[in-house]
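Subject: sequence -> structure tokens, single chain

Hey, anyone have a minute? Need the predicted structure for the following. Not urgent.
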Amino acid sequence: MAAEICKRTRVTGRVQGVWFRASTKQQADRLGVTGYANNLPDGSVEVLACGEATRVAELISWLHEGPELATVTRVDIAEVPVEECPCVAGFTTGEGSRFET
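Reply:
Had a minute. Here:
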């Protein structure tokens, strides 16, 4: 079994109101990655991604482009210790509702 990792990203650009969070959830579900995608007050989106390292890397690579209507200008990435990662199952969009994978 591959090692699990957790990464927090902040995606800036035209990323709200363009189906960014829903599209991120679709990609995460496809990859078997857990976490969340939340809109931030400054217009960016925070994404926490937890799972197998190669799958998390694939999701983060996708975040640099996002869905068709998005214009991503920057993706900041930070490691999160797995033991501090709140991800257990599923991927969330918005404030607190969990979706099971």
